[in-house]
Amino acid sequence: MHDEGGDKKRVIPAPLESEPRVHKARRAAPADAIRPTRAEVNLEALRKNLRVVKKHADGAKVWAVLKADAYGHGAPAVARTLERAGADGFCVALLEEGVELREAGIVAPILVMGGYYGGAYAEVLARDMTPVIYDESHLAGFAAAARALKLDKPVDVHVKLDTGMARLGLRAENLESFADKLTNVPELRPSGLMTHLASADALSQEHTREQMVRFDEMTATLEKKGIRPLVRHAANSAALLRAEARLSAVRPGIALFGVSPRAVGNDGDVGAPFDSELAPVMRVRTEVVDVRTVPVGQTVGYGGLFRATRDTRVATVPMGYADGLSRQLSNRGHLLVRGKRAPIIGAVSMDMSMIDVTDIPGVGITDEVMVLGAQEGPQGRDNITADEVASRIGTIAWEVLTSISRRVPRFYREQ
Ligand SMILES: Cc1ncc(COP(=O)(O)O)c(C=O)c1O
Q1: Can you spell out the DSSP letters for 165-230?
Q2: Which atom of ligand 1 is nearest to the CA of 261?
Q3: Which CATH topology does 282-384 take?
Q4: Which of the residues in the chain have pLDDT under 50?
Q5: What was the pLDDT predicted at 267?
């Protein structure tokens, strides 16, 4: 990973036959689409966000975080677009996510951050991915794999340190003994050092700064043992956009998809976005498939959660919780139709949901319905953001985007 982005002609060998095979995920493709429910991914917005991120990175390498199918946007197309647009490398959580990128023809460096390899160590190396290691078992596993593959030079690995996230990573008290073991494994070269920030979007930067002090201290401990990685990285989108922890590389995820983190206070209040130039990349749209009038007093949907207090025009849309429209939006959320907000009424069901269009004249079958994104129509212009949906149901934009399920085909557009 130290020569990030340099050698685009790298040959990717096939994985070993003796190991578990890692398969890429299967998702609905545009050619499978029969329903009008689809996600549209704007590749020009993605490129623009990369430019914004690079400006903030101020010379640090940008390794785009594309885990969870590139935050729901479809990892192969996103990676190909970002690779051509100058991303220096990619980070994934899972080995199989890295395999999917290699099979999509990605030659840029890929860092496997999750650190769970399920015994498929040789596959990581055979596919020329850079493993993140934080556990002694990784040392033996990768050393054996490197020997089996008869690699002619040491394998680059990144070491993960726990500086306050308490999730993965070596802790300070175990660092020296780990370093001794690592220096005795000639097959591995610790070329990178990483940590992950727990509170990069907190109103106070205190926790982040404490973590970075610990990161420096732990780096110094390793240096005393002769371990001097070429790159160190810590910043996620929030840290990057606040000019914290930039070091020699940054790992933005959500910012690339057009959502700017905001400062979150202890009371849960959120401030203004750290960046105002980022543009949303995904729109989710569907169409009205049914319109009916429900008389006053009648209920709508499972459990009769909505009861009409007037004669109500109800439009049905083919998008439900199995597509990623949270059931918590039942009787609470909105969708856009003809450029205007229509309240979701009753329970969101698995494949469908209903909206009240009584106050939106002229709604008919095949009218476009916007689930996420902006819409302009005869009734005006409005926008539903991932942030808005997240705050309505008490979650974060990351979850809203990654919840758009594989049933929803992704269509790629240039604008
Ligand atoms: C280790 C690591 N680095 C970077 C990121 C990117 O974070 P963000 O999407 O907030 O930029 C993540 C995502 O959660 C992560 O787990």
Answers
A1: --SSSB-HHHHHHHHHHHHT-TTEEEEEEE---S-TTBSS-HHHHHHHHHHHHHHHHHHHTT---S
A2: 10
A3: Lyase, Ornithine Decarboxylase; Chain A, domain 1 (2.40.37)
A4: 1-9
A5: 79
The pLDDT of residue 18? 67
Task: State how far the alpha carbon of 158 is from the alpha carbons of 105, 364, 368, 385, in Å.
Answer: 23, 56, 47, 36
Q: Please identify every residue annotated as catalytic.
A: 67, 302
Question: Residue ranges of the domains in the chain?
Answer: 43-273, 282-384
Q: Name 31's Cβ contacts closer than 8 Å, sequence gap at least 6.
A: none
What residues are in contact with ligand 1 under a 6 Å CB criterion? 65, 113, 196, 236-238, 251-255
Of 377, 309, 380, 371, residue with least CA distance to 344: 371
Q: How far apart are CA 340 and CA 322, in angstroms?
A: 25
Tell me, what's the pLDDT at 2? 45
pLDDT score at 266: 80
- Give the Cα separation of 121 and 188 in Å (integer): 13
43-273 has which CATH code? 3.20.20.10
Residue with tokens 């439009």: 315
Centroid of ligand 1 to alpha carbon of 110 (angstroms)? 15
